[in-house]
Design a protein that fits this description.
This protein is mainly β and about 450 residues long. The chain has helices at about 1-10, 40-45, 55-70, 110, 230-235, 240-245, 335-340; strands at about 25, 25-30, 50-55, 75-80, 85-90, 95-105, 120-130, 135-145, 150-155, 165-175, 180-185, 185-190, 200-210, 215-230, 250-260, 275-285, 295-305, 310-325, 340, 355-380, 390-410, 425-435, 440-445, 450-455. The chain is globular, with a radius of gyration of 24 Å. The two termini are about 20 Å apart.
Length: about 450
């Protein structure tokens, strides 16, 4: 364990800066931006007339990755010639609908154990992006199948390179026929009612963001929602259901504040920089009769360090802790808030089939990544592919990884063991990215128990 802590402390060392004779960039020339305003390029690069670039080649690479991470372009090229900064882009189609096909389980590995087509969920998300050419976005989602979900979100980005405001607001409704309400034998157990939805939820959220400079920002979050569980569920397992959210009905108010420092060179699949998020918040439960509150404190640190050419070391640390306002008299959290491992990207690879509960968690991840294809442009010459999509920026990374995690103040049940010990996993994987933001991860890992686990995911592990 000491060796692991020493390794991560070294991995998160300070970046070194280089200094060269500056090249002064007095002019800006942009090609291919039929809709996107020049203001978008300026606020993401910070360019101004007379900009002094100490390492122009490196700076162009940084700006190329920043612009490609906006999800506005299928192709971005940034160069300079004498005193002119040259930016060439190929814009995406901004108004379109994306079909959705997924599973009503936590991940692919869990769904694959049953391969039940009835547990698939399907629908679409309609995107209205780059409104007014200023990267304002609206998305509308409609999902059917095993679960149903409808949502709306509007996002306004920062208006300037530094000292500016941005915000997002959204609302939605979802229902399902399963309640993920208890853990037995370290696996999630369901309570199901076939004739009607067992759970109905409404949520709304407003996030106000203040950009301090390009890398640092503050976020204030305010949310309100309602959760309703069918009365018939309590008749099936009253104790378990009542412990899920302390009752069958919950009106809640969420507040939170976060500090974010983000120097990643590319947001979807970075190869350099860091992401730090430190947050605190609370959830006021059952507002109609002054129910308890749950307070949460969380820190996330991800770092991406270039090594030799084509090699990157990715490291991540996550720590979270939750406490009930009645901690002096109540020793446990509602099940919904005690869930720690096994959701989203918060899991130890090799333990995808399992979950673990407690008041908090500690998770460390590490991966050595090697570029198999980097900066490759796949060109499609035939077929009916739209012109702006004929060139596919494609990257393929092979990686060797190792994860470690453990719950803090675990929920004690005789049938569960993983939340009372260190979870250790390691393995190999292949990550594929296309058009900068579309990604798929294929991983084969081995856990501490000696089991091999294969998983497919569409979100970054860090």
């Amino acid at each position: 364990m000491k060796k692991l802590l020493i390794f991560f402390s070294v991995a998160f060392g300070i970046e070194e800066a280089t200094s060269q004779t500056p090249i002064v960039l007095n002019q800006l020339r942009i090609e291919g931006n039929t809709r996107t305003k020049t203001a978008v390029f300026i606020r993401e690069t910070g360019w101004t007339a007379g900009y002094a670039a100490h390492d122009a080649d490196s700076l162009c690479s940084v700006w190329q990755k920043r612009l490609s991470g906006l999800n506005l372009f299928n192709l971005v090229e940034v160069n300079y010639k004498q005193d002119t900064l040259l930016i060439s882009v190929r814009e995406r189609i901004y108004n379109w609908a994306l079909p959705e096909l997924s599973w009503a389980d936590r991940n692919f590995n869990v769904w694959w154990q049953t391969k039940d087509p009835n547990r698939l969920i399907y629908g679409f998300t309609a995107y209205f992006n780059n409104l007014g050419g200023l990267n304002h976005n609206i998305s509308v989602t409609a999902i059917h199948g095993f679960n149903r979900s409808y949502s709306f979100r509007y996002t306004k980005p920062f208006s300037a390179y530094r000292k500016s405001w941005g915000y997002s607001l959204g609302a939605g409704y979802w229902s399902n026929h399963e309640l993920w309400y208890i853990t037995m034998n370290d696996k999630l157990n369901f309570l199901r009612i076939e004739s009607q939805p067992i759970q109905r939820n409404f949520w709304s959220q407003f996030v106000l963001r203040r950009r301090l400079n390009y890398f640092n920002r503050l976020e204030l979050t305010l949310g309100y929602g309602r959760t309703r569980i069918a009365d018939s569920a309590a008749r099936l397992d009253r104790e378990g259901v009542m412990n899920y959210i302390y009752g069958l009905k919950r009106n809640y108010l969420e507040t939170g504040i976060s500090f974010v420092s983000d120097s990643r060179d590319q947001r979807d699949y970075p190869s350099q920089g860091h992401l730090i998020r430190i947050s605190a918040g609370n959830t006021f439960m059952n507002l109609n009769y002054s129910g308890p509150s749950v307070y949460q404190f969380e820190a996330r640190v991800n770092r991406f360090t270039p090594l030799k050419p084509k090699w990157v070391l990715a490291t991540g640390l996550v720590s979270r802790y939750r406490i009930d306002s009645r901690a002096l008299t109540v020793n446990t959290l509602p099940y919904l808030f005690s869930r720690q491992f096994g959701y989203g990207s918060d899991y130890v690879r090799g333990y995808e089939p399992f979950v673990a509960e407690g008041a908090g968690m500690f998770l460390a991840k590490m991966a050595f990544r090697r570029a198999v294809l980097q900066g490759y442009k796949l060109k499609i010459k035939r077929g009916n592919v739209l012109n702006n999509y004929r060139t596919i920026p494609l990257n393929v990374w092979f990686n060797i990884f190792a994860d470690a995690g453990r719950t803090i103040r675990p929920t004690v049940l005789r049938t569960n063991y993983l939340n009372r010990e260190w979870m250790l996993g390691s393995g190999i994987g292949m990550d594929v990215t296309a058009w900068y933001s579309a990604m798929a991860r294929f991983e084969l890992s081995r856990n501490r128990m000696g089991n091999w686990v294969f998983n497919i995911s569409y979100i970054n592990a860090f």
